[in-house]
Amino acid sequence: MFGSKTYIARRQQLKAKIADGIILLLGNVDSPMNYTDNTFYFRQDSSFLYFFGLDFQNLAGVIDVESGEDIIFGNDVSMEDIIWMGPQIVLKEKAEKVGVQRTEPYKNLQLVIEKAIQSGRKIHFLPPYRAENKLLLNELTGISVSKFKAYSSLPLINAIISLRSVKEDQEIVEIRKACAVGYEMHVTAMKMAKAGVWEQTIAGTIEGIANAGGGMVSFPVILSQNGETLHNHDHSKTLQNGRLLLVDAGAEVRSHYASDYTRTFPVSGKFTQKQREIYEIVLAANNRARELTKPGTTYLSVHMAAMEAIASGLKALGLMKGDVNDAVKNGAPALFMPHGLGHMLGLDVHDMEDLGQIYVGYDDEIRPVDQFGTAYLRMGRKLQPGFVITDEPGIYFIPALIEKWKAEKINTDFICFDRLEEYLDFGGIRLEDDILVTETGCEILGDRIPIVLNEIEDVMR
Ligand code: GLY
Ligand code: MN
Fold first, then answer.
1. Quick one: pLDDT at residue 353?
2. CA atoms within 13 A on the CB side of 118
3. For the CA of 342, the nearest atom of ligand 1
4. Which of 230, 233, 260, 435 to mutate to test the pocket of ligand 1 (most atoms within 8 A of CB)?
5. Which of 135, 205, 230, 333 is deepest in the core (most CB within 10 A)?
6. pLDDT value of position 86
7. How far is the CA of 349 from the centre of ligand 1 (A)?
8. pLDDT tens-digit series, residues 49-96
């Protein structure tokens, strides 16, 4: 948690961006794993954390834009709770830590919302993503669950995105801590990888590193020799020489700021010539994207430059053909990279995705591109100093997709389908770094996890 001044200032900035009404920010509650008292790890809502800082269950915050008052709703624990959970800080004291003077019992939230509705005041709320908060919001407002998206407040969404997108220095410090844990996770995976090791042994070990770092993984670990499946959570295979292992994993630290990295390396510890050739193209695309990342540039244009790097590398290798610019224009490299270059990173690994990607990654100037591959780009808009984004190009050989394009004769002017026969069991390579946009360009956050081929082979040795 940061000092109270941080949260007071953030709520002040938020109030200045909203014309009238009240802002309702729901914290999260415990979610049962299999029965009420056996819960998943508690994860507070990120916008609640950003404005109210308190990492506890069963809280809600109200910001009255007109009166300027901030209220935290919650209950103090009972003797029974103390017996099971130990002594707890009382609500008043928690609220003071984040600069809030007024606290109310949780049941009073209903009264405050009812009163606001009766007075015809606007209630600004965010689209809820958890079932518990959907039910609660339905009870509080009477709006049916299917209508939340339509009735959530666009002014509030836009105001929060504008604040949370530009990271404060103290937030960067926290992200760097998450990067340090992520570094440890990936180097450990490289050192553990060898033929005969179960994928799950490595996945579990690196998840433990995130946990030992004070938080948890920032998303379920993606670790597989079948790296061509973009989000592969199946860790059931045993490592085999000749295969590549793709690891996409990151940590969130106690403050909940996240890291998100991907590395791909050979199980044998030594890249084959064929693996080396594809790897070098992905690395060139990653480096090219970073070189172009600076304030004022759109990330959509950086994504397109990465696609161009992939197309020209694959053309040099004889897997693509024709004019590279035309190939990119026609979406041909999306056969090999059917995803976007990156996304925002912060309190969430895909920062603020719950608020709506169209608002986080796009604006009036830069609209989403409706083309296979680029349509998945989560971040297209103009970059500003203080943005933290990922740079994660990849090349994948997805047999089903190759089959489909070949059968439907898609982009036959640019794809050498015959050559792809040799790559159907290749897997996939993705290389992901976390990047801070600075005043003049950008920098990689944290020590760069070994990425050059020789460095990786050295670590694995
Ligand atoms: N690291 C997973 C993702 O970015 O989707
Ligand atoms: Mn990512």
1. 98
2. 6
3. 4
4. 260
5. 333
6. 93
7. 7
8. 999 999 999 999 999 999 999 999 999 989 999 998 899 999 999 999
For residues 219 and 203, the answer to whether their CB atoms sit within 8 Å is no
Residue 328 has a pLDDT of 98
The pLDDT score that the predictor gives to residue 45 is 98
Q: Residue 13: which pLDDT band, with cuts at 50, 70 and 90?
A: very high
pLDDT value of position 156 = 98
Q: Is 386 helix (H, G, I), strand (E, B) or coil?
A: coil
* 272: Cβ contacts below 8 Å, ≥ 6 apart: 242, 266
C-alpha span between 372 and 359 (Å, rounded): 20
For 442, the 3-state DSSP assignment is: strand
Q: How far is CA 113 from CA 19, 106, 107, 125, 150, in A?
A: 18, 12, 11, 11, 19
Domain residue limits, the chain = 4-165, 169-460
Closest ligand 1 atom to the C-alpha of 260?
Answer: 1
151 CA from centroid of ligand 1 (Å): 29
- Please name the CATH architecture into which domain 4-165 falls: 3-Layer(aba) Sandwich (3.40)
- CATH superfamily, domain 169-460, is Creatinase/methionine aminopeptidase superfamily (3.90.230.10)
**pLDDT, position 4:** 98
Please identify, by atom number, the ligand 1 atom nearest to the C-alpha of residue 350. 4
Contact between 348 and 219 (Cβ < 8 Å): no
Give the HSE-up count for residue 52: Cα atoms under 13 Å, Cβ half-sphere: 33
Q: Of 161, 158, 159, 151, nearest to 122 (Cα)?
A: 151
Listed in sequence order, the DSSP H helices in 44-153 are 46-52, 79-85, 91-97, 108-118, 131-141, 148-151
Residue 293: pLDDT band with limits 50, 70, 90: very high
Confidence of residue 249 (pLDDT cuts 50, 70, 90): very high
Q: What are the E-state strand segments in 300-427?
A: 388-391, 394-396
